[in-house]
Amino acid sequence: MTTNGKTSAACRGEDISNVVAKDAPGKKTARHERNRKEDAGVSTKSLPCAVYSSFFGRTGPMAFVSKEWELWTGYSSEEICQNAQAWPRCIHPDDRERALSTYEVASRDEVPYCMEYRVIHRHTGQVRHVRDQGLLPEDRETDITRVDGIVTDITEMKVLESELAEYRDQLEDMVAKRTSELSRANEVLRIEDAERRRAIEALSKSEEKFRTILENVTDVICYLDTKGNVLEVNSRIEAVLGHRPEEVIGKNFASVGIIGVSQVPRLVRLLKDTVLSGKPVSALELDLRHQNGATITVEVGTKFIQDEGKVKGIVTILKDVTEHRRAEQALMSLNHELKVAVRKLTAANREIVDFAHIAAHDLKAPLRGIGSLAGIVSAEYGDVLDDEGKELLEMLVGRASRMYTYIDSILRYSQIGRTVENKQKINLYKLLNEIVALLAPPENIEISVSKKLPSLVCDRARMVQVFQNLLDNAIKYMDKPRGWIRIDCSKEEDFWKFSVSDNGQGINEKYFEKIFKIFQTLVSRDEVESTGIGLSVVKKIIETYGGGIWVESQVGEGTTFYFTLPE
After folding, report:
1. C-alpha torsion angle, residues 489, 492, 494, 496 (rounded to 10)
2. Per-residue pLDDT tens over the stretch 148-181
3. In principle, which of 42, 53, 101, 319 could form an S-S bond with 299, CB 3.0–4.6 Å?
């Protein structure tokens, strides 16, 4: 490319031959002059593409560029010829490195080049696809090689190529789809042809195979004419009704003696319905008589046989359902007994609940008396009792209070699953915050409740028992100066999985089952006041709702109780 920061002759309106004549070093030869005169007759304004001129071996702006380049890029000929960075800026960023590399290789090897890239209009952002061809003149007589470039707008060609590619892809998809459809159709035809061949082969052996099938089915199959005469019957009739086939064939079905007089009208009506409707009739039950006198219940189904539009006969199938009906009767009897047992159990549960309430009331009365007497003794004789006596009196009051709590806990435990629950949609996040506020944990324990807790249809009091017992245990057994308790949940298939975690003292794995048993505690009740029934209540409530509960823990690190509730 020409340089030195001066405006080239082409940029001043002169033609390309003048640029070569003035800028190329060396003497002006006759050939140069002849080329100048020939080139002078060519106007770049009439060309259908942009042209430019540059020189290999120099760095700097273009020596010449036609006006079409300004229309495509917004850069004027003066800018291109005066600024070495103007031409690269015209090229699309994604194509710029490749285009410059191609030009550098051609400059180094002094060879022609041809490349495609995109140019961008600096003002409108319009993108064009162009083909850039650099040609070397045949009359090179200087050390600097001139290159004349022709840049052709191939945007429409690229659009057409893209459309053709899209059409080709669509055509290939249509061909593939049609090929697949034809393949499937051929496969269907192949299967149908194979089935047809098998059907023909089966029909060719019809007599023997029909007889084999007829004799091996578990139902009685009779072929009757339109008057009810037996034309054919399989040997199964002997196993079901005690008659050999030859004893029945040729006789009217109603007169063989296997059907009672009261059942004849029903059978006749069935046969008439089959003939008149021309449709199969099934699921009619008849009580037939076995040759030994026993009653056999059969399910009757019929289908008519047609020949040239006329009914020629009726196929009658008799399915022995005697044992099935006996089983149904036995099941009905068991259901009745079960209903009676349920009523008795309901009454017994009601009695147990009533007994629990009465027993709790009667047991609490003496305890209240003990508490009152202890209060009187403490008030009247407190100054007489020594320290040991006062300690024993306090122990008496504490034991009475603990027994009172035991009775209340047992009463609540006995009511789980036995009383009618007041189920409603409960927002567990709000409920947990109320429970935390009620428990009023110490300042050194932080309790966090996840906002992901769902709303469930359940009994509010039961949910309070579950979370209050779990949180109370976590607070009660916290042994860290800075404790935390976290309540969280996650959705798993049709269940919600809840977790109550803490960083407390933890539980040894060998006690994982023991802690859920009633009246079981891991610490002496004199050290930590506990009834040993809280986790038993939690487990029973969770299982009543169809969920499960388990624990994971590391001694010294903390404990997590998990439980599930149906969605």
Report:
1. -10
2. 899 999 999 988 988 998 899 899 889 888 888 8
3. 319
Long-range contact set of residues 507-516: C-beta below 8 Å, sequence gap at least 24:
507/551, 507/553, 507/555, 507/559, 508/553, 508/555, 509/553, 512/550, 512/551, 512/553, 515/551, 516/549
Residues 100 and 214 in one domain: no
Q: Can you tell me the distance from the alpha carbon of 2 to that of 560, in angstroms, rounded to the nearest whole number? A: 81
**Is residue 174, in this structure, part of any structural domain at all?**
no
Q: Write the CB contacts of 473 (distance below 8 Å, at least 6 apart in sequence).
A: 534, 535
> Does one domain contain both 447 and 517?
yes
Q: How many CA atoms lie within 13 A of 247 on its CB side?
A: 11
Residue 286 CA, chain-centre distance (Å), reads: 51
How many residues are present in the chain? 567
Q: What is the pLDDT of residues 305-339, one digit of tens each?
A: 777 767 777 788 888 888 888 888 888 888 888 88
Rounded Cα distance between 242 and 258, Å, is: 9
Cβ contact 280:298 at 8 Å? no
Residue in this structure with the two tokens 């579950």, named with its chain if needed: 466
Residues 411 and 438 in one domain: no
Residue 66 is encoded by which pair of tokens? 């036609």
- On whether the CB atoms of residues 551 and 512 are closer than 8 A, the answer is yes
Determine, yes or no, domain membership for 175: no
Only one residue has tokens 């060879």, namely 111
Three state DSSP letters for 113-142: EEEEEEEECCCCCCEEEEEEEEECCCCCCC
Q: Across residues 427-443, what is the average pLDDT?
A: 89
Higher-confidence position of 401 and 80: 80
